[in-house]
Write a structure and sequence with these properties.
The chain is mainly beta. 14% of the residues lie in helices and 36% in strands.
């Protein structure tokens, strides 16, 4: 699982990891996805849909774009 946060302006999605997981289970909520570690149920990432409507522009501007010199499979 990629362990860096990013914002994709084309999809208007922000992805914010919070930890590592072996197997991830995603829970869909009104604003996006919450990823849980299957074994511990610990939250390991959140994906925020329509991020430009939900997060401050300063945060989105500070996040890198996907694939911005980082290996997304890392």
């Amino acid at each position: 699982m990629s362990m860096y946060a990013y914002y994709d302006p084309d999809a208007d999605v922000a992805w914010l990891p919070t930890g590592d997981a072996g197997t991830v289970v995603s829970e869909e909520v009104e604003w996006g996805l919450i990823d849980h570690d299957e074994a511990t149920d610990k939250v390991v990432a959140v994906e925020i849909w329509r991020a430009s409507e939900r997060l401050p522009k300063a945060i989105l501007d500070a996040l890198p774009r996907p694939g911005n010199g980082r290996d997304a499979a890392a």
